Amino acid sequence: MTDAVEQEKPEKLKKSNWWWPGVVATSLAGAAVVAFRGCWHGNMSWPIGVQGYSYQVCLSCGAKRLFDENTFSAYGPFRYDLNELIAWEKSTKPKSHPAADGQRPASSSNAH
């Protein structure tokens, strides 16, 4: 009878160690992303207005980004120097043309 009981015992399963390298690889990949990416700028300040421009500041790292008050959204690159952001904004604005401003050249045709 004891032989029958011993036969019913399940075999002890071997624990596999496959998860340990996966945890290490995931942790290393996460650390690499943080190291190469840096701050995710998830905690931005309220818009600040200076020199006719509005911008936001990352409260974690201090990076600045321009802010459009009309659409209430941030745009452009992140920079630590506000003057660089203003220079970027000026370089990306389209040049104004007289026709675009509503000024039309006088027509030379005379209607009789």
Low-pLDDT windows of residues = 97-104
Give the helices and strands as they follow along the chain.
HHEEEEH
Strand % is 15-25%
Give the end-to-end Cα distance, rounded to a whole number of Å.
Answer: 125 Å
Report Rg.
32 Å
Number of helices: 3
- The overall pLDDT, averaged over residues, is 76
Question: Level of helix content?
Answer: 25-40%
Q: How would you describe what is shown here?
A:
The protein is of the alpha+beta class and 112 residues long. It has a domain at 39-93. It contains three helices and four strands; from the N terminus they run ααββββα. The chain has a four-stranded antiparallel beta sheet with strand order 1-2-3-4, with helices on one face. The radius of gyration is 32 Å and the shape is rod-shaped.
Protein traits:
four-stranded antiparallel β-sheet; 112 residues; 3 helices; alpha+beta
Helix/strand layout:
Elements: H1 2-8, H2 19-37, E1 48-50, E2 53-57, E3 64-68, E4 73-79, H3 82-92
Task: Give a quick precis of the structure.
By secondary structure, this protein is an alpha+beta fold. The chain is built from three helices and four strands; from the N terminus they run ααββββα.
